[in-house]
Design brief:
332 residues, ten-stranded mixed sheet, binds fe (ii) ion
């Protein structure tokens, strides 16, 4: 199998345990909170990635965070009847949808999965089924767009990328999200989960943390991983990641999160397997959210590495945030 698939959409959700009645009760005389303006209870936990997104989802009760290439994370209510059955308590991942190259690939995947499980073709063009762990998966003709942005890094001895007299260190320089990078899922039977993606969908295993699980890529991308499976007692989302353009953009995106009060979980640093620079944050979507950049590319000649995960094998460098580093009362 050589299915040309790549992430198209990753559905996540934010869930509030409050009922609609509680939601109405909560609307007193105070000015409406951001949560209420977006149609959620005042105490709902929301992550608004860009101020311009405010209100964009109000009428349809969903938020879509779309990257430049058309890949996206979609946030919906846990109670939305249009979502697949949950595999873990909310908030958590509810569905992964991969983009495939053409109709023939879509039909081949449908025929393969129909051998031993239900496959449903939706009116939205998505072919839906379940993987061997029980995660909802879907496939759709790709809608990815080519990214054609100027490069902002100059390297001595190489062609000029940032034009002469164009200054990089300005506050309002672009901080674009390029693509949905990867998703990391817990799997109680990680060997079985890997076999499904490799044997039934043609994913390649690029590297393995022997005490955790495999990094995998579909045939449609050379990137080190779009899927990382971690052995754990219960299924659920460990993290999902957006690619940004370069290290500067990653640090800036993370710094924006820090300044908005989101708690850094890990990073900034650089992974060894995949080489991607990373910065993780605690996410109100459940699990973690990561910004990364500059991931390794591999083809089928690559031989997977098998190593145990440890601090020494997980990061080549790691900055650590410090609240106070100088004498006196000031924090900076
Ligand atoms: Fe990651």
């Amino acid at each position: 199998m050589n299915y040309q698939m790549r992430f198209l959409l990753l559905f996540l959700l934010i869930g509030s345990a409050q009922s609609d009645a509680q939601s109405v009760q909560g609307k007193t005389a105070h000015a409406p909170t951001v949560q209420e303006r977006l149609g959620y209870p005042a105490s709902a936990r929301l992550l608004v990635i860009h101020a311009d997104d405010l209100g964009m989802s109000h009428s349809v009760n969903r938020a879509t965070f779309e990257a430049l290439d058309g890949t996206a994370a979609v946030v919906r209510r846990a109670s939305d009847p249009g979502l697949p059955v949950p595999i873990a308590a909310a908030p958590n991942i509810r569905e992964q949808i991969y983009g495939v190259a053409d109709q023939a690939t879509l039909e081949a995947i449908g025929a393969e999965l129909s051998k031993d499980r239900d496959v449903i073709a939706g009116s939205d063009g998505v072919l839906r089924s379940l993987d061997d762990t029980g995660y909802a998966i879907g496939f759709k003709l790709t809608q990815r767009r080519r990214i054609d942005l100027p490069k902002y890094i100059n390297v001595p001895g190489m062609q000029i990328h940032r034009p002469v007299n164009v200054i990089a260190a300005i506050d309002d320089c672009p901080n674009e999200i390029y693509s949905l990078s990867h998703v990391v899922l817990f799997a109680p039977d990680v060997d079985k989960a890997e076999k499904f993606y490799a044997g039934r969908l043609g994913f390649r295993t690029t590297d393995v943390f022997t005490n955790l699980g495999p990094f995998m890529r579909p045939a449609g991308t050379l990137e080190h991983h779009t899927l990382f499976l971690i052995k754990a007692p219960k299924p659920g989302l460990q993290h999902f990641t957006f690619h940004v353009g370069n290290l500067n953009d990653m640090l800036k995106a993370g710094w924006n999160f820090v300044n908005k009060g989101y708690k850094s979980f890990w990073g900034p640093g650089r992974h060894i397997l995949g080489s991607n620079n990373f910065w993780y944050f605690n996410s109100p979507f459940g699990g973690l959210m990561e910004f990364d950049c500059d991931m390794d590319l591999h083809d089928d000649s690559w031989k997977p590495r098998f190593i145990p995960a440890s601090p020494q094998t997980s990061q080549t460098y790691l900055f650590q945030f410090t609240e106070k580093w100088s004498p006196g009362d000031q924090k900076h």
